[in-house]
Amino acid sequence: METCDHRAVADSLTSRYCDWVHDALEDFPDAFLITDPAIAGHPIVFASRGFLSMSGYASEEVVGRNGRMFQGPGTSRRSVMEIREAIREERTLQISLLNYRRDGSPHWILFHLCPVFAPCDGHRRVVHFLSVQIPIPKRSRRTVVVSTTCRDAMRMDADLELDLANDDRGFEVEEWREAGEWEKEKAASVAGEILSALARYGKLSSGKRAGVVLPRPLSSALNISLGRIKQSFVLTDPHLPDMPIVYASDGFSSLTGYSRLEVLGRNCRFLNGPGTDTKVLNQIKDSIKAEKACAVRLLNYRKDRSPFWNLLHISPVRNASGKIAFYVGVQIEEGSKSNEHGLSPEMRQLGTVGQVKVAVRSISSGAGTSRLSS
Questions:
Q1: How far apart (Å, rounded) are the C-alpha atoms in residues 191 and 197?
Q2: 316 SS3 class
Q3: How confident is the model at residue 153 (pLDDT cuts 50, 70, 90)?
């Protein structure tokens, strides 16, 4: 077992990001690791639930150890050298890699490595490395069977070297797998989202990011409940300065073009533009001040700055104790097709508000399982 500075590993993320960065990273379902090159042995400091599920390891078996623990007799030495070179040169790399699960079974992944930079004395320096791992599906019928009787060095393709001296599990090792365009695009997309999250939760001198007050992520249970609601909506927290967005649905991203990570911590005013009616904005402010619901028609703008008429319904959302925890804003583009049940926009919005209220109340009454403002 490798030894490491456990305190340094534990503090690696929280020393550079807000205390709840782990909660934010846990919301990603994908398989990825974060490592710290400044700690002796370049250990893993975060392992996602997707990675743990894929590899069969528990978090305590992985965190604090070097990523070489996942290599085995079939891992290409040349690939390992390419990864080491990319780390030394602090650059991004995508490479097909044969890794091993906890039970010793081999599996092919697309290994996407990228450096995580942070400002330091007016310059950027690498503080972590992120490795996203996408399974590569089987595309070849030919296999090589690894058995305990095989003790010679074997070569699969001209690139893959097998040293079977210590392999006694008899697992089947497949031929070289090349990642397709889907795997490559998926890995790059996931890496981009994670890097955006790290940037958003990174600490500056004030502990804030670019003047944005960072909301603590919602609990996984509440995120799951809200994720089942198939409508464009956001939750905002009236107890934080500037009433920032703390949740944005997939429907909101589809309507506006903004990803969830681009809007968390921001006030909804970024949707406004030169044609937005200030009288309508004042009507919204008055309703929030009076803790009442309101429905308005508002000219908003997507990320690409194209305008759309937003049929907006805003309503307070109370927790189990009756206090306002959030405000929900439900958006429907005027002129968009009705849903399959033929409901009017007003009925769709009221239905969404009801679903959000049920989710918040059920979670907030569950013995403190959710982060709710009071």
A1: 10
A2: strand
A3: very low
